[in-house]
Design a protein that fits this description.
By secondary structure, this protein is α/β, with parallel strands linked by helices. Helices cover 42% and strands 14% of the residues. It has helices at 13-20, 24-31, 39-52, 58-64, 84-97, 110-120, 135-144, 168-181, 197-212, 229-239, 254-266, 300-315; strands at residues 70-75, 100-105, 127-131, 148-151, 163-166, 187-190, 222-223, 248-251, 276-278, 295-297, 324-327, 330-332. The chain has a 6-stranded parallel beta sheet with strand order 2-1-3-4-5-11, with helices on both faces. Residues 1-8 have low confidence and may be disordered.
Length: 342
């Protein structure tokens, strides 16, 4: 066997052609197994390929199969730290497979999602990953017949749409139950108006925990919020004006929890002395908040890796053992809650 030469990286088809003294199309024909190449030429090209360690990666195979070797990842925003581990998880899997990623953001606008999908379903991509897509976008994709996987959207309960989500209901239930066990009875929730299914399931878990403890639901304690710091800040100021304000706040995500902290600080109130607070997501900065925030961990890296792995199987024409994957959340206890002092 010929000894491989040392190279700085994998040689390209052009470099193989130069070394073998043939044209690029000839090398391409050899790689594609075409028979219209003279035997001596074929053997020379194959010797160079073996000697210089050319690797026929997934992208090259894709091109030979009439595919692009590209996958699109569509995010609502590129400047939101929540999505970064999802992006990294997707990138890891695609990099391992030799597939390139095209990244775009839509600003949470359904019309932008549909417009982008219309541009990439003309065979310019092999598959699509969408994070928090709108129902309109999902229906549009289902009609297109293009391989795709959703992240944080399950469609209807009977839908077979490939998707990955988290145990949001369970996360909401566990967080609220934790506060109840600490003796809290007036527990507020912020994020009632967030439209994503995960958000809807989160508040459903909160309500179920109150019901399981025989605590009545107080509509005044369920606050509007679309998962921003301003929402948390505004809701907290409103809650504290109630005749019977809450003793604990479950913020639907960590950004809202940061807003809760800011409002309490401005009013001279402390966490957890005057108010116990729980967030959701386990963003990196929650560990250095003062005090560190009790929260619910979302496996965002695993969300990205799982969805990308599923999409590659669909692109290859393989079946999925599960089309609706649910990843577990984990309760993270820190120092932002304490038992209610009567």
């Amino acid at each position: 066997m010929a000894k491989r030469h040392s190279t700085d990286g994998r040689p390209t088809i052009t470099q193989i052609a130069q070394i073998a003294g043939v044209s690029v199309p000839t090398v391409s024909k050899v790689l594609n197994g075409r028979t219209d190449v003279a035997l001596p030429t074929r053997e020379r090209v194959e010797r160079v390929i073996e000697e210089y360690g050319f690797v026929r990666n997934r992208a090259a195979r894709a091109l030979r199969q009439g595919k692009t070797g590209l996958v699109d990842l569509i995010l609502p925003r590129l400047d939101d730290e929540y999505f970064l581990p999802i992006l990294e998880g997707v990138a890891q899997v695609l990099r391992e497979a030799g597939v390139r990623m095209v990244l775009t953001s839509t600003g949470y606008r359904a019309e932008q999602e549909v417009r982008w999908i219309n541009t990439v379903t003309d065979h310019s991509t092999d598959g699509i990953l969408l994070v928090l897509p709108s129902d309109e976008t999902v229906k549009h994709l289902e009609r297109s017949g293009h391989p795709f996987v959703l992240i944080h959207n399950q469609g209807s309960q009977l839908s077979k749409t490939p998707s990955v989500k988290i145990t949001s209901w369970e996360g909401g239930f566990v967080a609220t139950t934790y506060l109840i066990k600490l003796g809290h009875r007036r527990i507020a929730y912020i994020g009632k108006t967030a439209p994503a299914r995960d958000a809807i399931e989160r508040i459903a878990g909160y309500r179920a925990a109150l019901d399981a403890a025989n605590l009545s639901l107080d509509p005044q304690l369920e606050c509007a919020g679309n998962f921003t710091e301003v929402d948390g800040y505004t809701a907290t100021r409103t809650l504290l004006k109630l005749p019977a304000p809450p003793t604990a706040i479950f913020a639907g995500n960590d950004r809202q929890a940061a807003g809760v902290y800011r409002a309490l600080h401005e009013l001279g109130l402390t966490v957890p002395g005057d108010m116990s607070v729980i967030g959701f997501d386990n963003l990196p900065y929650t560990e250095i908040m003062n005090p560190p925030l009790t929260t619910v961990h979302v496996p965002r890296l695993a969300l990205g890796r799982t969805a990308a792995t599923m999409l590659l199987r669909l692109i290859d024409g393989e079946g999925l053992e599960l089309t609706r994957v649910v990843l577990p959340t984990e309760f993270i206890e820190r120092q932002s809650c304490q038992p209610l002092s009567l």
